Structure formats: structure tokens, C-alpha cells
Amino acid sequence: MSLPAATTPPTLPSPPRSALERFLSLFTDVRAGEGVRLLLLTANVFLILTAYYVMKPAREAFILDQQGGAEIKSYALAAQAVLLAAIVPLYGSLASRLPRRRLINLVTAFFIACLPVFYVVSQAGVKVGVPFFLWIGIFSLMVIAQFWAYANDIHTPEEGKRLFAVIAFGASSGAVFGAWLSGRLIEAFGVRPLLLFAAAILAASLAVFNYVDLRRRATHAAEPQRTREDVSIGSGNAFALVLKNRYLLLIAGTIFLLNWCNSAGEYILSAIVKGTADAKVQNGTLGAAEAGRFIGSFYADYFQVVNIAGMVLQLFVVSRVIKYLGVPVAICVLPVVALGSYATAALIPSLAIVRWVKTAENSVDYSLMNTVRHMLFLPTTREEKFKAKQVIDSFVVRAGDVISAATVWLGTTVLAIGVSQFAWINVAVVLAWLAFAAATGREFARRTAAHSERAA
To answer: How big is the CA angle at 119 (ends 40 and 148), to the nearest 5 degrees?
Structure first.
């Protein structure tokens, strides 16, 4: 009697995608069941960035409305780095004691509660320029890093590589919308009420986060091994996590050199714009009273083009670069662009050239690089996502800005070098940045492959 032939079990068909998921697939590969969560996370970070850009004009108004305000802004960046050296370990201590959702709620609620206090104190005539400048600098780094830590924590590396480009579009569009909204609000209500509007927007973002998290907990109620929302994040020291981990050190080096280069590049552009305005005044093309308008108009056009280019790249290019070239290549795109940009600026230090090379650099930075830098934490532990990411996205970022400021001070006051020489310094920094980026990309690929093997 012959035994029946073995049969292969039938493959279950994939569940159908919703209309929302089919629409989102115009921009990246969105699969069944991912659409609502993706849209909600995009809305969450959209609201956070909208609130930040609503507050930014108030920051400028507060700090410039006092003697030496422009110089104080430069010194305040260094003060932020010092504060972050103390605040990041405090955040890490909270993360060691609180579950993930409670941590995010507590930290965000603290920042929300500060805004009415600043409003009341400033209404009373107290100068809040420096405290608010320091506060908003810490907010902009820590709260955004916290959001991306959460997004990393609830996605696998494979999911993050597909979906983060759309989530990052929420950040880009939030920045654009917030900048537009702040202008309309100032016209209607003045500067100080911006703080109250920002508090309301942040409260809305916190409500969206809690809905996302509660919805996800309900969806994965039968999979406690995946979520573990009811436990704290870990007990390690935030700075020690970075210092003892080669991959995290590579990420830190990449971000440090990126910010050093970019901040120095902004000085190069500012110096050329100011020099061009002064030259036009001297040759009679501009009246002395029109120099400020020339500079303001230049930057308004420049920022508009950068933001539009960044949004187009974010929506139509970023996901495809990551899909077809991969993160190890994508992380090297910006330093390659910057290398060509600053080499060109060093050889032809004209306003037209520097404007467009900086436009190319910043649009790629705000889109592709901004997405990739958050993806780098996909193959890390939960503790590394919440603690080490805070170190890198706040303290290391600000440290890069401080070193850039020191470079500018040394070049202008001690060495007395010009724009072309500053551009050559940036070329050297970019070469080191490219080396770090390439090493980081290789390590990301290795860790992601190891993660996939464990999951299989």
C-alpha cells in the first residue's frame, strides 16, 4: 500500500491593503495594516515640528530685544552643550525608572507646562531671552530625539527602512507649516501668545502619541515579547552606552562632523551675503538703509528654495534611494555632495556659487540625511534608542556647533583667513566625515543582517 504524496501547505494570501495604504504606496512600500499607524506617527511629528517653528520667532524676538543679543546667541549654543551634559544623564535616570509611555508623557508634559510660565513672566516685563533660548534649544533636540527613539522602538529594521521616509516628511512639512503659521499668528495676536499656541499644539501631539501607543498595545496584546511596554528601558549610563559601543561611537562621530561642517558652511554663506551687501552699498547699487532688506530678502528666498527642495526630495526620492541603494550608500550621499560643494566654493567663492551649493547641501541634509540618521538606531537595543540617541542627537549635535564656532573664531580673529580658506577647512572636515559615514554604513548593514538572522 503506497503512502499519499506529501503536499506543501497552501500559501495564505496577503491581506488586502486599504485605500489609505494604496495611496501611501505612491511614496514608499506600505503594507496591509501599516497605513493608520504610519499616518498617525507622521501627524505626531508634524505637530511637534509645527510647535517648534511657531516658537522660533518668539525666541528671536526675546533674545534680540536686549543689549548684545546677537553675540549672546553664539554664547548660548555653548551654554546649551554644558546644560545638556547634565540633562542627558538625568533623562537617562528617568528612562531607567519609567516605562516608555510614562517617560514620553512626563518629559513632553514638562515642556508643555513651561510655556505658560514663560508667557506669564514675559508679560510681566521680565527679560526671558536667554532662559527661553536655552530652553527651546534643549526642547528641539530632546523631544524630537525622543519621538524618533519611540519610532525606532516600534519598528523592525525592515519596516523602518520602508516607512521612515514618510514619517520624516511629517517633520519637514511641520517645519514649513509652523513657519507659515507663526507669521499669521504674529499678525493677529503678537509675539508672546505664540507660546500658548505652541503649548496647545504640543498637547495635541501628546494626545496623538498616546492614541498610537494604546492602539498598538491593543493590536499586539497577544505578543508581549515584542512590546514590553510595562517595563523600564534599562539602567545603563547614557554617555557610557555611547563610549563603550563602537557602532554608537561611529554614529556620534558622523553626526559631530556633519554639524561642524554644516555650521561652518552657514558662516561661509553669511559672510559672503554680508560682504556682497557691503560691496553694493560702497559702489552705490544699494543705499545704506537697504542693506538689511537685501540680506533679509536673500535669506527668505534661500530658505524657501531649500525647504521646497527638501520636501520634494523627502516625498519622492528618499524612500527610493534607501530601497535601491541601501542605507550604507545613502548615508554617504550628503558628505559627497558637501565635498563637491565646498571644493567648488573654495575655488569660486562667489555668492551665486555658494548659495546653490549650500542649497544642495541643506536640501539633502533636511531630507535624505535626516531620515537616514534616525534609521541608524533601528538595529540597536531599546536602552540605546532612548538613552544613547539622546546623547548623540542633543549633546553631540551641540558639541559640533561649538567646535564650528571655535573654528570661526580662530579663523577670523587669530588667523585672519577668508571665505575660500574656510571652505578648504570644510573640505578637510568632510573627508573625515565621509570616512566615518562609510564605516557607520558598513556596521549598520552588519547589524541589520544579524538582526534578520535572529528574527528568522
So the answer is: 25
The answer to whether 84 and 398 have CB atoms below 8 angstroms apart is yes
In this structure, are 68 and 100 located in the same domain? yes
Residue 238: predicted pLDDT: 84
Of the ranges 193-197, 199-203, 395-399, which is most confident? 199-203
Considering the domain architecture, whether residues 39 and 147 belong to the same structural domain is answered as yes
By the 10 Å C-beta count (0-12 exposed, 13-18 middle, 19+ buried), 191 is classed as middle
Residues in contact with 378: Cβ distance below 8 Å, sequence separation at least 6, in sequence order: 152, 155, 156, 157, 160, 161, 448
- For the domain that residue 385 is a member of, what is the CATH number? 1.20.1250.20
Give the residue among 111, 92, 104, 115 at the shortest CA–CA distance from 211: 104
> Tens of pLDDT along 237-247?
888 999 999 99
262 and 382 part of one domain = yes
Domain count for the chain, please give it.
2
What was the pLDDT predicted at 226? Answer: 46
Say yes or no: 100 and 146 in one domain. Answer: yes
- Provide the residue type at 3 as one letter: L
- Give me the domain span that covers residue 135: 33-217+228-235
Higher pLDDT pick, 12 / 203:
203
Q: Tell how far CA 442 is from the center of its chain.
A: 22
Instruction: Report the SS3 class of residue 241.
Output: helix
Determine the Cα–Cα distance for residues 239 and 236; give it in Å rounded to an integer: 9
pLDDT (0 to 100) of residue 170: 92
The answer to whether residues 153 and 216 touch, using CB atoms and an 8 Å cutoff, is no
Quickly tell me which residue has 549610563 as its cell. Answer: 237
Whether 22 maps to a domain, the answer reads no
Give the C-alpha distances (Å, rounded to integers) separating 134 from 59, 71, 125, 278, 435.
9, 14, 19, 32, 33
Instruction: Answer yes or no: is pLDDT of 439 > 80.
Output: yes
All three cell numbers of 79: 551654554
Largest Cα span, the chain: 106
Query: 302: burial class by Cβ within 10 Å (0-12, 13-18, 19+)?
Result: middle
pLDDT at 64 over 70: no
